[in-house]
Known about the structure:
Elements: H1 6-28, E1 48-50, E2 55-60, E3 66-72, E4 78-85, E5 91-96, E6 102-112, E7 115-132, H2 134-137, H3 146-152, E8 157-160, E9 178-180, H4 191-204, E10 208-214, H5 226-229, H6 236-250, H7 254-282, H8 284-287, E11 302-306, E12 308-309, E13 324-334, E14 343-351, E15 353-358, E16 361-366, E17 373-378, E18 386-396, E19 402-403, E20 411-414, E21 428-429, E22 432-441, H9 465-471, E23 481-485, H10 494-512, E24 519-522, H11 538-552, E25 556-559, H12 575-590, E26 601-608, E27 611-617, E28 623-624, E29 633-636, E30 642-644, E31 646-650, E32 653-657, E33 666-669, E34 680-681, E35 691-692
Parallel strand pairs: 1-7, 7-10, 7-23, 8-10, 23-24, 24-25
Antiparallel strand pairs: 2-5, 3-4, 3-6, 6-7, 8-9, 11-22, 12-19, 13-18, 13-22, 14-17, 14-19, 14-20, 15-16, 15-18, 20-21, 26-27, 27-32, 28-34, 29-30, 29-33, 31-32, 33-35
Helix pairs in contact: 1-7, 4-12, 10-11
Amino acid sequence: xxxxxxxxxxxxxxxxxxxxxxxxxxxxxxxxxxxxxxxxxxxxxxxxxxxxxxxxxxxxxxxxxxxxxxxxxxxxxxxxxxxxxxxxxxxxxxxxxxxxxxxxxxxxxxxxxxxxxxxxxxxxxxxxxxxxxxxxxxxxxxxxxxxxxxxxxxxxxxxxxxxxxxxxxxxxxxxxxxxxxxxxxxxxxxxxxxxxxxxxxxxxxxxxxxxxxxxxxxxxxxxxxxxxxxxxxxxxxxxxxxxxxxxxxxxxxxxxxxxxxxxxxxxxxxxxxxxxxxxxxxxxxxxxxxxxxxxxxxxxxxxxxxxxxxxxxxxxxxxxxxxxxxxxxxxxxxxxxxxxxxxxxxxxxxxxxxxxxxxxxxxxxxxxxxxxxxxxxxxxxxxxxxxxxxxxxxxxxxxxxxxxxxxxxxxxxxxxxxxxxxxxxxxxxxxxxxxxxxxxxxxxxxxxxxxxxxxxxxxxxxxxxxxxxxxxxxxxxxxxxxxxxxxxxxxxxxxxxxxxxxxxxxxxxxxxxxxxxxxxxxxxxxxxxxxxxxxxxxxxxxxxxxxxxxxxxxxxxxxxxxxxxxxxxxxxxxxxxxxxxxxxxxxxxxxxxxxxxxxxxxxxxxxxxxxxxxxxxxxxxxxxxxxxxxxxxxxxxxxxxxxxxxxxxxxxxxxxxxxxxxxxxxxxxxxxxxxxxxxxxxxxxxxxxxxxxxxxxxxxx
Length: 701
């Protein structure tokens, strides 16, 4: 993940003590109940309420007063209502009786002591929570078929998407609003959630609300409430240590806080120096002084238009997938009046690090801030009348790099124009043709800037940090269930994940208080180069942990995605296939609409001589996908050495054998990071999930 703006970091350092003082004041002052009524952001205009279920409505009103909550139709008729009394702190919790689905806009009115607030354009239908990391966060825009989906997704689909936040303690609210689907707004919805909503909504003929609460690159721990993780033997010590560190942090004095800031700043500056020093040793452009050598074809320089993202403008096609250093040059002609005068160089955002020279003299550098516009002060002694040379080294180590701003954001101008003619005072445009040259490859990311002192319980590895800030504020908003696509960031820790995922599900269900609500899990998609090793890759064991969760935790479903992955991209673009499989599970198992919802599931195995017989459930029409021979199975004998197996389908069984394994004991299927050989499907076209007979079912604590 690329870093935040550098200027923001340093401004944060300057104001941290003030912020700390304000935070301490906010914590220590007593809560004062306000006379006016306030509702959390999730209870607002355009929301979708869960049908056929009691609907909690909460907020603040005048202390110790009756609060009336009513649902009013378009004619002004009250169709549902409930009363609740606010406490001494003004908090109230009302529970509206269950309602049937309604596509016609309704109004919710909350009244107390002669005051009222209204939520307009309220629908009643199905509400699903979409959680996880980047593959759930991935937007409709940028997905295969996304433009068509955005054009056709009805306005009865609404999405609630909080900004990324972390907190040491559960928060009461967050600044977010419900967004009605339009051809434009739907582009920003979670792709899996939107396709799921399209399928479920059209099949059931109901509105659908999506709570899209997710964050790319995150682990499962920050989504698991710390108080419940503390009860689990595997994680109790970790949580206790985080809580101890949090208590210490909360009692730090301003002087101690400033010491921490100074230490972080010093460590960051040292990391920046080491980063550039290491790059300079590796990058030949430094040794050969590409910032001053003739930028011509004889020296292998070539032309391209600036600004532009690498790979998207003519002349940079070879940089589309390049990570590393590129050198950029252009000349400008300055009038006599500019000689010896200070100037400013504006280059717009550069993705992601850069050094800039003018006439061979460095005038500035930025390390790792890909969104920050570059504005560098140019000393007057650097400039002279006539031709001047600008050189820029760009180092991009993740995704597409380049000059990523707009043409009007690239220019040089004088710091002051006193005594300069109006013509000479004009800025000099820098967009247009530049010369560039490719340097060395590099995937070494620039050091991330510290964000100032961070509470130990409000960090990305802390139990509950994202739950507290992004989930807790919407609890107990009524939902039908949850969809979860995560695990990439926990890969390599499958044993812990077998315990962690069930723990997280239990925690969510306890916090919501709706019982064992349905929980759909997306199994990790295929990723990385295919291997000829029959049992390769950490992702295999993580997938098995996901399968195990579905087996041992009630009311869970599994959407297999090994066949819709991308070897070169952890973010496969075919989100519709994943959403359709989740929808098939929901329609069949949650809404009792029937139909197949699963691929072939391993049931049992037996040995017959040199063959293994594997029996499957959900096995109607077992076949290899697209009529191909079945593959992806491996067997091993008592020595534990797995060999690819020949496979033959007979009814609901697959018969396995290998000339290299005379006495098989164990079977594994699709046991690799990108199991391209695995192609077992049933007549519904759903793929079989990976399995291993030597990975026993385990129940969580």
